[in-house]
């Protein structure tokens, strides 16, 4: 703006200086043609006026441009300040949210066994039960007597027959194996629903596990996900088994890692105790070029050994034996000449240290279970301790306690619903886990036979709660309240709780199908039970209600 004013002043001064009247010519006389001079002066004045207007317009444009730039700069500055404030609030909100979420998860995992407010939870849960007609005591008792007890009476005789045949088969297996090179097979043990007396769905299948060990001088050294080494979340519940020499140090000797000179000898390991070559490690059922036991190799070895053993003793029996599943090591079926058949599973396992926890080579898979990380990863089974816990708690319960009855009814209802709408992510093992949690949470008198209806509702509500939260913790892993009488390994009690419903978080389609199947089962519960229930007169039902009152 000062430059513009200076230019205007310069034009005015120039006009004044050049005015003919102010500085006349040398002769000092006014020209005769005055009109011509006046006309020129007017033209000059008009040109100066136009120039002044042009300069004023330029000055105004410059001022407007300057104001616009200043305003834009202010807007940008305010935007930056607002963005900084917004970013700060966003970051602060995210930090607060993460802290709350971490606190919530830690609180739930740290108190998953706390049962102080469990009855309150049962009171506020059960949203899926609204409008559901739950069978009364008389209907449940009639259903249990006709449908459950009426179909499970032959289980004891079937167990005895299968165990006797399995012992004979394993004895023949030992005789056909090379004691110096093959695995050493021990006696079998019965586990699962058939030996816990709650199996209800046919066909009845006996589950037997067979511990085995390597030949001398080798031994198994196991490593679990909770042994201190880092295992990814999808490998929790698994472990690996390393085949080592019995006199080999766990950490390994330096002679295995360093080439010793020809004139040097390891004082711990003689030349006769050197590790077997790779081909012989494969003979020990290890994964190729490793010392880790391979589940697939074990399956092939066991199937071949069972086949040889049956060929040796088949002449003694009047039935045929065959493999019902080729992808399972010992899924066997006995076929009688009458056309009847009996199925049972004979599964090789490896003992974990000196406990009754076992690494199982092949585990029954479900739609919820993920594939094994590799064939060198073995799943851990606590079936022996589960059976012992049920036996131990049963001694403290009232006569004819209803805990097994609840599990049988729930297993039947879920199995019947799955046969109608297709399989879901729930398994019988999940249902048994629910029962184990409630057995530990509730006092003994709550399991009296007349409380069957209430306890069955508790199991359904507990399962509904677990499905809503996608959390059902393994009963033994991370449970510090396991009775000391069981002799359960402390390493698993101190481990982080293992969520059996973790795959639901990753597989939403399976989760939705499971929840829909559960709700459909609740809606169809009365119809499914009434289908197998003898008609009960109304007077008899009222009499039972009066007695209960």
TrEMBL record:
<protein>
    <recommendedName>
        <fullName>Inositol 1,4,5-trisphosphate receptor-interacting protein</fullName>
    </recommendedName>
</protein>
<comment type="function">
    <text>Enhances Ca(2+)-mediated inhibition of inositol 1,4,5-triphosphate receptor (ITPR) Ca(2+) release.</text>
</comment>
<dbReference type="InterPro" id="IPR046906">
    <property type="entry name" value="Mab-21_HhH/H2TH-like"/>
</dbReference>
<keyword id="KW-1133">Transmembrane helix</keyword>
<dbReference type="GO" id="GO:0005886">
    <property type="term" value="C:plasma membrane"/>
</dbReference>
<keyword id="KW-0325">Glycoprotein</keyword>
<feature type="signal peptide">
    <location>
        <begin position="1"/>
        <end position="15"/>
    </location>
</feature>
<dbReference type="GO" id="GO:0004860">
    <property type="term" value="F:protein kinase inhibitor activity"/>
</dbReference>
<dbReference type="InterPro" id="IPR026250">
    <property type="entry name" value="ITPRIP-like"/>
</dbReference>
<feature type="coiled-coil region">
    <location>
        <begin position="38"/>
        <end position="72"/>
    </location>
</feature>
<keyword id="KW-0812">Transmembrane</keyword>
<keyword id="KW-0175">Coiled coil</keyword>
<keyword id="KW-0472">Membrane</keyword>
<dbReference type="Pfam" id="PF20266">
    <property type="entry name" value="Mab-21_C"/>
</dbReference>
<feature type="domain" description="Mab-21-like HhH/H2TH-like">
    <location>
        <begin position="404"/>
        <end position="477"/>
    </location>
</feature>
<keyword id="KW-1003">Cell membrane</keyword>
<keyword id="KW-0732">Signal</keyword>
<dbReference type="InterPro" id="IPR024810">
    <property type="entry name" value="MAB21L/cGLR"/>
</dbReference>
<keyword id="KW-0539">Nucleus</keyword>
<dbReference type="GO" id="GO:0005640">
    <property type="term" value="C:nuclear outer membrane"/>
</dbReference>
<comment type="similarity">
    <text>Belongs to the ITPRIP family.</text>
</comment>
